[in-house]
Every structure is written in structure tokens, then in C-alpha cells.
Amino acid sequence: MFEKMTMVGALNGALRDALDEDPKVVVQGEDIGRLGGVFRVTDGLQHRFGKDRVVDSPLAESGIVGTAIGLALRGFRPVVEIQFDGFVFPAFNQIVTQLAKMHARSLGKVRLPVVVRIPYGGGIGAIEHHSESPEAYFMHTAGLRVASPATADDAYWMLRQAIASDDPVIFLEPKRRYWDKCEVNLTTEPAPLHKARVVRPGRDLTLAAYGPSVKLCLAAAEAGAAEGRSLEVLDLRSLSPLDTDTVEWSVRRTRRMVVVHEAPVFVGAGAEIAARVQERCFYHLEAPVLRVGGFHAPYPPSRLEEEYLPGLDRVMHAVDQAFAS
Questions:
Q1: What's the confidence (pLDDT) of residue 189?
Q2: Residues in CB range of 159: below 8 A, 6 or more apart
Q3: What are the start-end ranges of the H helices in the chain?
Q4: Nearest-5° Cα angle at 154, 215 to 87
Q5: What does pTM read for this prediction?
Q6: Tens digits of per-residue pLDDT, 36-55?
Q7: Which residues are catalytic?
Q8: For 130, which of 14, 124, 174, 225 is 20 to 30 Å away at the CA?
Q9: What is the DSSP string of 131-158?
Q10: CA–CA separation, 44 vs 50, rounded Å?
């Protein structure tokens, strides 16, 4: 069964179905109950499932995640919302020193099936602390799974898979794509949570992206086709673990690669991907792996964010550089 919906609708549906199917699933966060969340992702869930399962939390991110850890220790499957990306940092200690480490600290005896939902990235004209891309912090932390959907279909299924995981998952939701619509297959589960996917086949160069940047890379592939270039678009979907096998398979065929993300290029996810590709595919490459992303600077005021974020011109400039090498 297919249904056309926005990413917000898909996420809401995933939470609703998970709450329906498992009484141990609980949802908590700031303003998620009566208000339905600032982006309305949790709209109607408290009315349907009650205040004990869809909980309006105090304005204390450390307490939200700490409470979720306690609930997980008691057998629940908490799904917590961090209202905006820049608000996650007060909870950083709980996430990286407790949530990520408990399984190893207990020698495998304790699992914490907690999902931390974070609307992230720019493109909505928001102020400081509302447009961050903190994925590299969590990729660097052993014990966390990190994933980001690019479409409504992936948003539904990847969130369902994250909630079913026995490991903690940082679930990054690209807020600039919240209102994009696509067909969602509600009956056939797609690829595993941590499997990358080719969303547009090509022969000449691989554009690798995740979350908000996949749509940009598809636009770049269209522009490349008009110039006679066949660009493959690879949606990474998962950042930790990273599906290196699919990345390498793509690059060995196309022999060139550009990695695109909104986060700063300096020590961003693209740096790890580029390093792995150049280590493992060196003799297949006809050009260096290039990266396109934000600048190594604080996120700017909204009137300047389109200059800060990678756009079509910057992606196509990198593509031109790759072919000129």
C-alpha cells in the first residue's frame, strides 16, 4: 500500500505505529504532547495514547535523555525528541558518557534501546542554535548508531527500524525536508537501517550525500546530464556504521567522487568518507575525492545562510574540478 505524505506525516505515522504495536515504547520531549511538537511531528499522539506514554518534558535536555536511560534500564523503549539541533549539547554528557557506553561498561549485559530524534540542518531561516549539523560529534562516539533519512519513505521505515534496535540511535531528521512529499510504501520494508542506496545510477562520478543534501545532489545530477555527464547519486542513509562496501562499489565503477553535506567540511563526515575511499580505492580513482559543505565558521544569520550552505553552483564546481584532474 502506497500513500503520498510529507516527511512529518511519515515520522508521525512511524511513531503512532510503534506506540500501537509495543506498549513499552514511550515518547517524550519538550512540547511534544499537547502542542504536538514545534514541527507537529507528534501531533495527536498524546490524545491517542495518553500522557503516560507521550510525555511533555521539562525544558532540560540532560534530564530528558537521563530519564530515557532510566526507562530503558527498566525495559522500555524510549523515543526522545530534542526540539532543535543546537539544543542537544546540554544532553551531550548523558549521550556520550552514559547512553553510548553502558553496553560496553556492563560487558554486554545491558542494552539501552533509546532513540534520540534531532531535527537538524539549515534552510528554514532559523536563528542561532536552530540550524546546526552535529552529526560528526556522534559519529565519533563508539556505541551510538547514527542515521538520517532523505525522504518520507525512508523516514517512516528508518524510524521504525531505529525504535526496534537494541542499541541507542541518534536519528537526525533534515528539517528543511519536513514538508517534501513522496510515496511511502507502508507494507514493504526497504533496505536495512544502515545500508546505503543508489538513488540515481551513473557512470562518470559518484555524488555521496545524506539527509538534506540528497535532493541537492539529485539536482546536480540533472544539471550534469544536461552537460553530458552521468552522475551517480548515493544516499548514505547511515553515518555510523557507514556502509563502506556500497561506497567502494560505486566509486570503483565511476572512478570519481564528491561528498556533499551541510556540516562544515573541516573534520566533517566527508573527511572520513574521503579518507576511506582514498585508502581502499586509490588505484581506481582518476581524481582526488572532493568535499562540499559548510564553512568552518559559526552558523550565520538567516539572511546569509544560503551563502553558507552548499548549493548547486558549489556542487557543480566540485564536479568540474573532479573532471579537470
A1: 78
A2: 11, 14, 15, 18, 115, 117, 149, 171
A3: 7-21, 45-49, 61-73, 92-93, 102-105, 135-139, 152-164, 213-226, 244-254, 269-280, 305-308, 312-324
A4: 80
A5: 0.96
A6: 999 999 999 999 999 999 99
A7: 130
A8: 14
A9: S---HHHHHTSTT-EEE--SSHHHHHHH
A10: 10
